[in-house]
Amino acid sequence: MTERENGGASRRDFLTSTAKLAAVAGAGLGAAQGAAASVSDASDLADADKSRAEPFWGAHQSGIVTPLQGHTYVAALDLEAKDRDDVIRLFRGWTLAAAQMCAGRPAQLPNADDSYGADSGDALGLPPSRLTVTFGLGASLFTKEGKDRYGLASRRPEAFVDLPKFVGDQLIEARTGGDLSVQACADDPQVAFHAVRELVRLAYGVAQMRWSQSGFNADFGPGKTPRNLMGFKDGTHNPKTS
Description:
The structure is a single chain. The chain is an alpha+beta fold. The chain contains six helices and six strands. The strands form two sheets. The chain has a four-stranded antiparallel β-sheet. Strands 3-4 form a two-stranded antiparallel sheet. α5 packs antiparallel against α6. The longest helix is centred in the middle third of the chain and has 19 residues. The termini are far apart.
């Protein structure tokens, strides 16, 4: 008997009902962009101008309803900071660095020492490639092991909790969860990798990378629905961003 037949919710039901939350809070760690982009956006891949810069500043985070780029790099991090002010400084530094990189400039923080503040330089000479950087928060940022770590427990949305373990899951602890997530998407894989690399490096002493994953979106041609690596047409019924 399947979980649905037994009266319970299926994984598909659960993920469908929480898709909106994942898009807002980053719980999906990259699923939001794929769920929000329409199939017609795939045609933008063929005509993408790598010299184009996606705006970093605006009413909403970039990378949510941005037309799909060809490559992504995602990382989850665990916070080591004991003090809330350290977390605030991390996000301020990340914001500045991400804005610089999305504009095609090196990530350089004011008064940063050369040990980890200067850009690594591996993306010098490469255009912005429509880079977007999207930050997400894990439920453990607010409360972990029953403790209010940074005085943020009261600000956690009531429905924002860790996903439960589903039937058939074979979860690996080292590649599950995280306090923060960073998703970089670009039409050049090196630009996406460089963005995450710099942000992880700027987090030295405050947060440590827990796991990372690269990905890509194949170009099947204008107006065509991409096929995923399991052989399925993926995204045909995604909502249109307009």
